[in-house]
Predict the structure.
Amino acid sequence: MNQQNTVKQAFLKTLPVMAGYVVLGTGFGILLRNAGYGVLWAFAMSLLIYAGSMQYVGVSLLTGGASIITTAMTTFMVNARHLFYSISMVDRYKDTGKFKPYMIFGLTDETYSLLCDGSTPEGADPNLYRFLVTAFNQSYWVTGSVLGSLLGTVLPFSTAGIEFSMTALFIASFTGQWLAADDHIPALTGLLSTLLCLVIFGPGRFLIPAMLLFTLILTLLRGRREAA
Amino acid sequence: MREAVLVAVMAVVTILLRFLPFLVIRKETPPYISYLGRVLPPAIIGMLVIYCLKDVNPAVSPFGIPELISAACVVALQVWRRNSLVSILGGTVLYMVLVQQVF
């Protein structure tokens, strides 16, 4: 096993996340600074919370003088999806040794999408690889946040549309998993359940119902599918 | 001080959510959880795709056309090259050109 190769593979894997995280992190840093919290706050929040959409919500909690209970409840609602990410990784992260706590801590949407199929590159140390993918991603996010906080204004060239890199990341993961799988029922169940819940609950609060719905459907299908 | 407490609360709740399943399931993974580990990832990625596109409004100009074209480009590149970096870069650059120059 070649360590240098592992570092290279992990870095290449995270390149698509770099653009999105630096730009979205910069947006967070700017927002936070305009709310009156400087670079140390941006650094601490991106280091300790490390959950993109939650940090954006967090800015308004800070400025709005939210109570501890409100903050805890809001965080729970915004981040409840992570419960499902972790449930689906319990097996894959079983014997990942000393890196395991950090890998669990850093399981964002994007890191999850890079690692959830369980595959690691040939010739790479699997656990070091997963650790590095997680750490590279967080380093981009922290860098972006600090950058935004220090600059305080948007970048001098137009980055309009660069946020599509996150959408593209998930579409590429979805397509990649689709091509690798014989069974497309889980992917279709996820897609259609979420679409249905978006229509029913609206764009503000459809994620949790969607996750409950497709977990339920896939659970009900289990007997039939395990027997097959 | 008050704000530092709020940041700590956000951090602790997020960490708890991420760690809880690992703390509860410590020994043998129950077969049901192993099953979920196999079927949830594709479903969750499907969900995240929809989530990213949730604010696209097909009834208002530009009718989600830039998203549709760029998403199709990502899928096509992924099927053709099987290289995520190429697909994501291609789709994103196309999208940026579309929203900045075309629509």
